[in-house]
Amino acid sequence: MNILITGGTGLLGKALIEMNTGMHKIVSTYLGNYDISLDNAAVIYRKLDVRDKQGYVQLFKEFRPNVVIHTAGIGNPDYAEKNKQEAWDINVGGTQNLIDCAEAVDSKFIYISSNGIYGGDSAPYGEETETRPINYYGQVKLKGEEITRKSLIPHAIVRPILMYGWNHPFERLNIVTLSLRKLREEQIVNAYSDIFVNPLFVFQCAQAIWKIVFEDKYDTFNIGGKDRLSIFEFLETTARIFGYDDKLIKPVSQGFFKELVKRPIDTSYNTEKMEKILGIKPLSAEEGLKAMKERKMYARGVNFSSYTHL
């Protein structure tokens, strides 16, 4: 099977690639101020912007992917708010470009959405709960979902919530790796005590996506961890699991960081569909953080032994 992963050097793309044990050929596209040299027998990296439709037309002609996993996009709400046209062109226009290419070669398509499509006042959120984004980032992610649903090919929509795990050193840090860097330097880590999520170990999200691919379960899924926690509670747990002083984690209220846009207060998920249809039992924050710390990439009987570079 040929798999195309956009944004393949990001946190989720990296996990998807590391879970592939050579069974499938992957082309991974990325866009960054670096040249990557991690090609091997199963993965080929291409620097390609999702706004470059002709570049993708050529790639689809050459590679003819059976499945497209579209993880690429602008993921920072403040950046999206300040750069609305760019956010639209990448998160919406780029998605449309990929769907057009996928339809031309009859590829299946998996769109990675976000918990940002929800308003934050009706948790826990199931897949059929009303979507009501409260910032521009959420709006463009929801528009990507709408485009995906109108496509003429089998498609899935995956909505991860706050993901964490080991990122590539040349990619942006996530909430855990950023906090660990500060904790190592004995810096204070301010964390919201009034924003709630169920943090998601990135390998569980990758596991869910591969289940969709392998078992042909193309549908909409909210993918989250077991525990509903405030960001403060989650980072307290992170400090404890990794052996740092949890008193360095300080609770603050939304607005402390003077973000440009408001975040939803509580977007925690109801994971019943993930558990029933995909057969994935969500990890607690402690289980996921321990797996990350111990570099044992497993979850509920799924072997992640290919994760060997750390």
Provide structural commentary.
The chain is α/β, with parallel strands linked by helices and 310 residues long. 37% of the residues lie in helices and 18% in strands. The protein is built from 10 helices and 15 strands. A 7-stranded parallel sheet has the order 3-2-1-4-5-6-11, sandwiched between helices. Strand 5, helix 5 (136-149) and strand 6 (155-160) form a beta-alpha-beta unit. It is globular and about 55 Å long. It starts with a strand and ends in a 7-residue tail after the last strand.
Straight-line N-to-C gap: 28 Å
Report the total helices.
10
Structural class by SSE content: alpha/beta
The tally of strands reads 15
- Quick check: average pLDDT? 92
Please give the order of strands in the largest beta sheet: 3-2-1-4-5-6-11
Element order: H for helix, E for strand: EHEEHEHHEHEEHEEEHEEHEHHEE
Query: How would you describe the shape?
Result: globular
Residue share in β-strands = 15-25%
Q: Helicity level, as a percent range?
A: 25-40%
Index terms:
310 residues; alpha/beta; seven-stranded parallel sheet; two-stranded parallel sheet; 10 helices; 15 strands; 18% strand; globular; disordered C terminus
